[in-house]
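Lab notebook, bench 4. Still working through the backlog of constructs that have no structural model yet. Next entry is a single chain of 348 residues. Request: give me the structure tokens for it.
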Amino acid sequence: MLGGLLGGGLIPSQNLYDPISSQRIVLQRNANYVLRARAGPDMQHLETIDVNYERTPMLIDTPHFKGYITVRVFGFNGLMSDPCHPPPAQAEYFANGFSRKALYSIQVVGQFIGHGLTADNIMFGNYFDQRLPLPPFTGLFEWFMRRMDRTLVLDMKSDTPSATSPLLSTVQKLSYWKSNLHGSEREQVPEINNKIIRQIQPIDGAFDSDGRVAEYFPIKDTLNKDSKKRRRHFEKSSRRQRWKIKPDETYAFDFYSPFIDVNHQCVRMPNSVVEPMPFFNGDMPLRYECRTRDNRRTFFIVQFELIPASRTRPLSSLQYGDRPRRQYRDSGYEREILDPPPPYTEEA
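Model written out:
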């Protein structure tokens, strides 16, 4: 999909060899927009999610899915559910150099509810609400993306484009266990995922020693701890169709990218080339959805969107020391954010 493979790699050709112009565009967009992340069970019930808050994951509880969503963004400086509440300086998730692997993370832990679900008909990826202004050589990029992900399903030229893959073959880390199985009690729980680990009590091995989702997935009745093997295994549709997804099973997965920098609205390529993210602007959010292949059921949505900076105002630097923050103007814009949010609690 666009995010996982190329970090939004359909880069406008006029900027490919002009780093000064690219940097200027990136800086201008950063000044004009403020990042916000929202999540929910469908488009009608999206709520602002508190990025980098390990203790307050968002609960999704519907007839189709029940679980927790955590969103992390490296260096996040965007909007929170309470406009007067600053985000953490940094998420522990990115410690020990993990920011070289992930500039953002969408983590989900939960159960898919319903009959007839298989690994072949649960899709995850990018969905857009309007036709994309495709740059030249789009066909070459599509060919490269399919080489990177053989399960990728692209529909980039329709009025509602999408780039999706079967969930179990595209996420970077995936753990699975029966819901009636629990791991040993832990005396010390890492700050990362501490609430989820205590409440769901995952089987030992589902999370690593740092608290991140680990690769813990059986293949052919053998425990697998190599994500590449699992992704290659599910490249074949026959294997995905045989893997039944049942309501009494819990899945924990982490999807991330080392290329997309949503906080600065740009793409960072391995050779340090920085490009503005195409199609990600005030009118076009970067949206990830988990749906059935036939689009009849939506399990959850995570959406990164840019709010015009003109709709916000800086808070006093005296309130938050040297970290300037922004809040919404009292203009009636996005009223659901201006309403009083639930109080923050410190319990794990």
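Notes after review: The two ends are 34 Å apart (CA to CA). Residues 19-32 form the longest helix (14 residues). Flag for follow-up if needed.
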